[in-house]
Amino acid sequence: MPLKTFALRPLIAAGAVACGLIAPTWAQTPPPAPSQPVTETLHGVTLVDPYRNLETRSPETLAWMRAQAAYASQTLDAIPVRQPLLQRIEQLARTTGDAVGPVLRMPGERYYYLQRKAGENQFKLVLRSGLGGAEQVLVDPQALARAAGGTPHAINYFMPSWDGRYVAYGISVGGSENATLYVLDTTTGHTVGEPIPRVVEEGVSWMPDNQRFAYNQLRELPPGTPDTETYLDSTVFLQTVGQKAAQARPLFGPTVNRDLKLDRLDVAQVIFSPDSGYMVARTTDTTSPEGKLFAAPLAALSAPAIDWQRIAGPEDKITDIALRGNELVVRTYQGAPRGKLLAVPLDNQAQAQARTLVPEPATGVLEGFELEKDAVLTEERSSFTLRAVRYDAQGRHDIAPAVPGSTLINGNPAHLGGDTLVGTSSWTAPQRLLQVDAHGGTRDTGLRNQQAPASVPEIVAEEVMVPSHDGVMVPLAILHRKDLKKDGQAPTLLIGYGAYGLSEEAHFLPRNFAWFERGGVIAIANVRGSGAFGDPWHRAGFKATKPNTWKDGIAAAKYLVAQGYTHPKRLGIWGTSAGGIFVGRAVTEAPDLFAAAIFDVGSLDTVRSENSANGVTNISEFGTVQDPEDFKSLLAMSTYQHIEKGVAYPAVLLIHGMNDPRVDTWESAKTAAKLQVSTSSGKPVLLRLDEQAGHGIGSTAQQAYTKQADLMAFLLWQFGLAGSQP
C-alpha cells in the first residue's frame, strides 16, 4: 500500500503521534545506539550499514528506543512555547466546529460519514437520513477504546449495503491499520456474524441482493514467517451476512485462480453494482493502480468454478474503474497523459470495442470520476485547484462555476441523479459540502460546518511557479499573514511529498493559525513525483528521475529566501511518509539551506525498505535492489546512505509510531542514530516515538494536537525566536 496516508493533509496538523515510550529518568544527552556494522556489496558498490541491528526489535534495540523517546519528550517539554502552543491548538480545535471526513451518499438520500465533534478524540461513523434528518451514530471507536483500557481504536473504512440494512466496517487498534471487518445491522444496532480478521484493504463490495459481500483477506502467517510474505497470496472471499467466517467462499486470488497465472502480489477486489449482471475483479500491488482486470457474469456464481475473462493488464495503464450496467468505465492514461475515460462493454469484452466516454482534457488533469444514470462527473486538476465537471447530452460544463475549487464527494455508487454534491477546496476558508442544482445554483448542506477561527490574522495564499535546477517550473503555494513583511525574518515551513502521482490540493486547517499568529509562513510544493500535471509529472520524479523530487524542493527553498520570505536560519522543511525522501535528501544535499527538518514517518533507508512487509508493495514505485538500474535509483534516494561524518546538518526531529505498517520504525531509528554521531553542527537530533500510533491513520485528536505542538515548538526553538529557548 502507498506510504502516504489517505487521511493526511501534510500541513502542520497532518498525522498524529505522541511520545508514548517514556522512561522515568532524565537523560542529558541522547543515548548512543548499539552498533553492529554490516558490510555488503551490491552490483559492485560496497555499502557499510553501521546500524543494521536496529532493524530487529531485540531487547537492546527496544531499550535504546525507549531512552531516545524519553530524551526527545523531555527536550520538547522543556521548550517554553510548547505548552502555550498546545493550549492554543486545543482551543482552535474546540471553537472551530466538528471535523467531517469522507461523505458517502446512498440511495434513499442516506448520508454516511466520519465525524469527530469538537472536543471529541476520535472519528465516529454517522448516518443521516435526508439532509434535514437527525444524526445517528453507528460506530463509536471511543467506546471501544474505553473498553480496551484506553488503547486507541479507529474506523479504517466502511461500506453500507445498497438498501442500507447493513454496514460493513473495519476497526484497527493502536494505529496498526490491521483492521478486523464487522457487519452492523442498522435496524438493531448490533453486529451480526463473526468478526473477520486481517481485512486490511478497503474495497468491501455488496452484491445486489444486499445479503452477500466480498472482501480481501490476508493469510494468517505462522510465527517466524518473513515480513515480506505479509501481502502475498491474499484472497477475495464472498460472505453471506450472519454466516460463519469459515463458510465464506474463496472467490478470487492467486491461490484460487491458478489458471489466470496471477502474481503473488496481485491483491484483488471484486466489485458489484445493483444495476449490473456482472462482477469485476481488479488487482493491484496495493501501491500502483495499474493492475489487471477480469469480469464474469453474476450467474457464474452458481458454477463450481468461475470462468473469469481478462479485460486488461498493467500495459493498459488503467488507474480507476466503476461498474455501470453492462459496461465498465475506466480511467486510463494510455495515449492520454492527463487521463481519459473509456467505456468497455462487458458483453463483448474485446477492448477494441471500448468507446471514449470522456476525452483527455485540453488543459488540466482528469483525476477522479463518478457515474450518474445519464452523465459522468469528473474532477479536473489545475495545479492546486480541483474543479467538478459534468459530461452529459448537452456537453461539458462546470458543475459549480461560482465555486473557486470544487471536489466530488466520495460516493454516488448507485448512479444517483438529480442534484449533485460537491465539496469546496480553498486555502483560506473552511470546507463546505454544497448541493448543486441543474442550473448551477448552490446551497450549503450543513454536513461540514467548521468555522474560521475568530480574532485571527487574515491569511492570503499565493500560488507561484518556481524554476527548478533544470529550468522546469514547479508549483508552489505560499500561505501567510496579509500583513507579512518580506524582510527575510518569517519562520517558514516548506512541505512536500512527490510520489505515486498524488498531488497536494488547496485545503484549510484552522489549527494552522497557531503558526500564522506567530508570523509563520507555510509553503507547499507540488514537486515532481506528484501528479500535478498528469502522468509525465509523476514519471519525472520516479525511480531514475527521483532526484527531481528533492531538487524541486531545494529550488522552492531558495525561492522563499530570494523573495524575502525567510532566511536559512528560519527555514524548516517537512516531509511525511514517502515525503521522507523529499525532506531527507534535500537536507543531506543542501544542509546549509535549512535550520531544522521534520522527518515524519519517513521513508529514509530505501536500499533496505523492500525487506519490510510494505516495502515489497512499493517496488513498483521505487524499484528493487535486485535490479542494477533500480539499485542506483534507490541508493540515490536513500537519506541514510547519504549521511556523512562531519557535515553540519540542521536540527532534525524524527517522528514515528511503533505500530506503523507502511514504513517500519527502524527507518527513523537508524537515521536518527547515524545523524547523531555524524552531524558537526551541535544541533539536536530527536527521535520521537509512540507505542500507540502507526502511520497516522487512526491516531486520536489529542495525539495530533500534541504532535503539532511539539513540531512547531521544535521549529521555533531552532529558529532562535524570542521566548522559544529552553
Automatic annotation (TrEMBL):
<dbReference type="InterPro" id="IPR029058">
    <property type="entry name" value="AB_hydrolase_fold"/>
</dbReference>
<feature type="signal peptide">
    <location>
        <begin position="1"/>
        <end position="27"/>
    </location>
</feature>
<keyword id="KW-0378">Hydrolase</keyword>
<dbReference type="Pfam" id="PF02897">
    <property type="entry name" value="Peptidase_S9_N"/>
</dbReference>
<protein>
    <recommendedName>
        <fullName>prolyl oligopeptidase</fullName>
        <ecNumber>3.4.21.26</ecNumber>
    </recommendedName>
</protein>
<keyword id="KW-0732">Signal</keyword>
<dbReference type="InterPro" id="IPR002471">
    <property type="entry name" value="Pept_S9_AS"/>
</dbReference>
<keyword id="KW-0645">Protease</keyword>
<feature type="domain" description="Peptidase S9A N-terminal">
    <location>
        <begin position="35"/>
        <end position="443"/>
    </location>
</feature>
<dbReference type="InterPro" id="IPR002470">
    <property type="entry name" value="Peptidase_S9A"/>
</dbReference>
<dbReference type="InterPro" id="IPR051167">
    <property type="entry name" value="Prolyl_oligopep/macrocyclase"/>
</dbReference>
<dbReference type="InterPro" id="IPR001375">
    <property type="entry name" value="Peptidase_S9_cat"/>
</dbReference>
<dbReference type="Pfam" id="PF00326">
    <property type="entry name" value="Peptidase_S9"/>
</dbReference>
<keyword id="KW-0720">Serine protease</keyword>
<feature type="domain" description="Peptidase S9 prolyl oligopeptidase catalytic">
    <location>
        <begin position="511"/>
        <end position="720"/>
    </location>
</feature>
<dbReference type="InterPro" id="IPR023302">
    <property type="entry name" value="Pept_S9A_N"/>
</dbReference>
<comment type="similarity">
    <text>Belongs to the peptidase S9A family.</text>
</comment>
